[in-house]
Write a structure and sequence with these properties.
With about 220 residues, the chain is α/β, with parallel strands linked by helices. It has helices spanning about 5-20, 45-55, 70-80, 90-105, 125-135, 150, 175-180, 185-205; strands at about 25, 35-40, 60-65, 80-85, 105-110, 140-145, 165-170. The two termini are about 20 Å apart.
């Protein structure tokens, strides 16, 4: 980890542990080295920090390009591995940035829902996450964050000391669909992207915390 990233990582761990009584389940399921895509539900601005602080490796994150316009803010965001993309990570530039990071062996965190939930419930995944998964060649780890909506959702002005939990699922590789995508029709390819997106959100939704399953 870069020095500044390490400081933020350790600080977030301390805040998460003492203020939010955070629990982590099965962080060992995230590969320690090599490219990996982590996909998580999104309910709070805290979510990237919570997931990043829960794994023993640095991750890369997407952030709106407009946040980088201020020189100091841009420097800080880059120091913690944020990738500037247009809103919601769309467009060729955003995809290129993701693949460039993966090609260097980085881990990247994506939110398939595209934006924070407005009611605390899981939202449908957008097909874009399916495109990223199919065109990459690395494992995909589903992640479920519990409690961040209650702690700092859209309806909360100041973070509340609610208990949080982060649980990691088993890595998936989508090998059969990746193979099919190499020679199928455009219509089928579009369907594959959405199928992958749906399967990812189903995997996230199946993750449930329990006291005797701590990783």
């Amino acid at each position: 980890m870069k020095p500044f990233y390490f400081v933020v990582w350790k600080t977030t761990q301390a805040v998460a542990l003492f203020y939010f009584r955070r629990r982590v389940f099965h962080a060992e399921r995230v590969p320690r080295h090599g490219p990996v895509i982590l996909v998580a539900n999104h309910a709070s601005y805290f979510d990237p920090l919570l997931v990043g602080a829960a794994v023993p490796r640095d991750l890369h994150y997407l952030a709106r390009a407009s946040l980088f316009r201020h020189r100091l803010a841009g420097a800080i965001l880059r120091a913690v591995n944020c990738v500037p993309v247009e809103r919601e990570g769309g467009g060729a530039a955003g995809l290129r940035a993701i693949f460039e990071r993966l090609e260097t062996g980085a881990g990247i965190l994506l939110f398939p829902e595209g934006t924070r939930t407005s009611d605390g419930q899981l939202q449908p995944a957008r097909a874009g996450i399916g495109l990223v998964v199919i065109k990459s060649n690395c494992p995909v780890v589903p992640v479920r964050i519990f409690g961040s909506y209650e702690a700092f959702g859209r309806h909360v002005r100041f973070p509340r000391p609610r208990q949080l939990a982060v649980k990691f699922g088993c890595p998936r590789n989508f090998a059969p669909l990746r193979a099919e995508a190499g020679s199928c029709s455009k219509a089928r390819l579009k369907a594959i992207y959405q199928q992958v997106a749906d399967e990812i959100m189903q995997a996230v939704g199946k993750l449930q915390p329990c006291q005797d399953d701590r990783g």
